[in-house]
Amino acid sequence: MVRQGRPTITDVARAAGVSKGAVSFALNGRPGVAEGTRQRILAAAKAMGWTPSHRGRALSTSRAFAVGLVLARPPELLGADPFFPAFIAGVERVLAERNQALVLQVVTSRRAEEDGYRRLAADGRVDGVFLLDLRIADPRIALLEELRLPAVTLGRPDVASPFPAVLVDDRPGITAAVRHLVELGHRHVAHVAGPDHFLHGRARRDAWENALRAAGLPPGPCVPADFSAAGGAQATHQLLDLADVPTAIIYANDLMAMAGMAVARERGLDVPGRLSLTGFDDTELAAHISPALTSVRTDPSGWGGAAARALLDLIEGDGGADVEMAPAQLVVRASTAPPPTPHQSPRPAGRPSRRPGRSIVTAAEIGDPS
Amino acid sequence: MVRQGRPTITDVARAAGVSKGAVSFALNGRPGVAEGTRQRILAAAKAMGWTPSHRGRALSTSRAFAVGLVLARPPELLGADPFFPAFIAGVERVLAERNQALVLQVVTSRRAEEDGYRRLAADGRVDGVFLLDLRIADPRIALLEELRLPAVTLGRPDVASPFPAVLVDDRPGITAAVRHLVELGHRHVAHVAGPDHFLHGRARRDAWENALRAAGLPPGPCVPADFSAAGGAQATHQLLDLADVPTAIIYANDLMAMAGMAVARERGLDVPGRLSLTGFDDTELAAHISPALTSVRTDPSGWGGAAARALLDLIEGDGGADVEMAPAQLVVRASTAPPPTPHQSPRPAGRPSRRPGRSIVTAAEIGDPS
DNA sequence: TTGTACGCGTTATCAA
DNA sequence: TTGATAACGCGTACAA
């Protein structure tokens, strides 16, 4: 009789002349099976091409062997943000090693987001989730606690959280950008921020403000936007309509910076001659627009890997500690230059000075093709 | 005694005073249960807050209630391409309705890609998969047949395929772009293509070539690139180094077009005065660079929804038919204009003529903010 | 080491 | 026609 379908653990047991239990022990490398028997069992399993049934195992262990990610972003932004694909690629590298899967959910409203987590938990689709884009007093922390769903947050929440965090610090990158501009002679450095309710948007804004204060300068105007090109363009118009036009603008992401650059050009303002701009993310395109965009490079793929490791460790029971990631680095390109009527700067401007232990690199150092 | 954990079907049966089987029949709306009994069972289930166990059901029905997507792209490109997030958002809308999950796998090599499908199939993680980025003589078709994994292809493969296809036709968009340029007076229209091995890259290239021939013009030079900004820049340099410099370039995606625009600017070529450019994808940024990019708008989210429906129908047993999607549309913006020394054009140039049943729209018509 | 119950829903078989 | 009973799918875990 031809066995249809895949061999089961019972088939292996029969072939090896032992019980199911013995097979299970042998295959999981646990004590309680004589070495000779173990070999016989392993040989039989291999000969029949047996693989454990994921479904059977999931049922009996009450585990999903999968982790989840719920993305809540407006659709037009999802495509423009290079963060997620890179983050996910990093996650996958780790998951593949450990034979786990990633269940993705993309939603476009807050309601749907909560439902997403609830469904994931109710169906037992995943053993844990990633929490991205932390918000002020993020309600998802309590939700996940209620659902008893282990999680890892990207960044440290501003509310008490029982979950380990992968600490990513955007601030040094912004701080470096401000310093770079100040060294070039800028005194009016504005900021186009991300939405107020995001912790990372807030952090970038704070870093901008603090760095200016540290340089003895008053924080220039700040306009919150939504990370989209349209939002960046609108914010830039607002800033350029001011009586006291800034000589430099720090954007919370590349997309807004690129849109801002176009706005400046349409208004006849030379970049960087009249206006210096910096982005955030260091997207591939940043090096390939004209002028090439000075930006802050982060490592979303590295964060993804670290987050996946932390989450799996948490699920396995060990782990639970925060992980600190390397800070973001400024990549200097052509969109930043001394302001039109340079104040006297402490150092000769035009070539930014390098700092030891720095978070500033020039494009040439990283083999940037621009 | 307090019941810990979720109620099972056995609990419901006990509460309703019937057998497990009866409960299952009642809850799945199948005949063989008297109406009164059915009501009693449903009431009991509701009262106890019973939800079917996804794992139990998966085990007994040998189904995963999930579909898979394996993305094989170089990491730097993944972030830049707006296609995937939009496609996935469309997929999710449909999956959520039907209580299915999406298992995502991101890989960066061909080897890993094949492994990805094999793992998905071996573990029974999914009931079917999406096949994107079809290649010439795509080996994945045979692989999926071997794995007995139902699939839906995005586009029609060039090899015999047992799978339904969601037919997306990029060609009308490219054809419209060529016509638009020809009407503006261009006679030297070059193309920066996608990689040769992708069917969609090939289709766009063919459309460009055919449209030029149809206009009685010889196809200008064509340079294959890799969809990245770096590749687009390099290809543009190649084209602009030619003795016979084209007056217009059609790019296979926006990213390459934007990089090409920067190259033109760096070389002192005014866009669109000296060189007209068109992109493909109509990313959000396209409307917000300067000059705003004429591009071809597609509907990746709509394709995702259609593909998800087709795949679920296929898995359910009904369906299996191809689905045809609306063709891509050209969106005319500021990066295209008459060439520097215009040939006499059949119509007054400068304002592209509208065609009935057309695939050309102007930015104003779609409420484009540029 | 073995035997067996368990996790949970589906479905074939069979008696009423 | 209605509904109970039991087998099934598959690996894990505990008592014997």
Written overview of the protein:
Two copies of one chain form a homodimer. Chain A has 370 residues and is of the alpha/beta class. Chain A has three domains: 9-51, 434 Repressor (Amino-terminal Domain) (Orthogonal Bundle), CATH 1.10.260; 62-169 and 301-324, 3-Layer(aba) Sandwich (Rossmann fold), CATH 3.40.50.2300; 171-297 and 328-366, Response regulator (Rossmann fold, 3-Layer(aba) Sandwich), CATH 3.40.50.2300. Chain A contains 13 helices and 13 strands. Chain A has helices at 9-16, 20-27, 35-48, 54-61, 75-80, 83-97, 110-122, 139-147, 171-184, 199-214, 229-240, 254-266, 300-316; strands at residues 66-72, 101-107, 129-131, 151-154, 165-167, 189-193, 222-224, 248-251, 276-278, 295-297, 323-324, 329-332, 360-362. The first copy, chain A, has a six-stranded parallel sheet with strand order 2-1-3-4-5-11, sandwiched between helices. A four-stranded parallel sheet of chain A has the order 7-6-8-9, sandwiched between helices. The longest helix of chain A is centred in the C-terminal third of the chain and has 17 residues, at 300-316. Chain A is elongated. The model of chain A is unreliable at 342-358 (pLDDT under 50). Strand 2 (101-107) of chain A pairs antiparallel with strand 2 of chain B, so a sheet runs across the interface. Chain B binds a DNA duplex (16 and 16 nucleotides) through helix 2 and helix 4.
